[in-house]
Amino acid sequence: MDQIKQRMNALRIEADESASKAEEYKAKLKTLETENTQKEQEITSLTHKNQVLEAEVEKLESSVKTYKDEATGGAAASSQVEAMQRKIQVLEEEAEESDRTIRELNEKLRQTDVKSGHFERKVQALEQARDQWETKYEEMAKKYADTKKDLDEFAAELGNI
């Protein structure tokens, strides 16, 4: 009986250890299942992220192709831009020359206006002098006519004597 008791005790100890290990394994299983769920969620998230990135890569590849095509066309456009820039530079130089000419012409016009004003004053003075001379001439012509009339009357009186 001792042997049976010992065997029972050994079986109880073994059963307790097995129960303890079973609890430990259940906890470990629960932890592993939680980790597995997290990993599956992470995989799902990464899969979605991967799909989004692949779509973005496709978009970017399409953009790169478009940009390459535009760059090819851009080379021709850049030569046109350079030609336009040269034209602009020539036009700017011509505009500067025109501005310079306009300033010179404005200065000459101002000088001409000053001279014109001076000559207008001279013309007015000469016209006034002419008017004075015409008035004097008319007065002298009248005096001449009066004197000639007097002389003719005097000569007629002398001829009657």
From TrEMBL:
Cellular component terms per the entry's GO annotation: actin cortical patch; actin filament; formin-nucleated actin cable; mating projection actin fusion focus; mitotic actomyosin contractile ring
Keyword Coiled coil: yes
Coiled coil: 1-157
Protein name: Tropomyosin
UniProt xrefs under Gene3D superfamilies: 1.20.5.170, 1.20.5.340
GO molecular-function term, one example from the UniProt record: actin lateral binding
Organism: Paraphaeosphaeria sporulosa
A biological process term (GO) from this entry: actin cortical patch organization
Record keywords: Coiled coil
Signal peptide (residue range): none
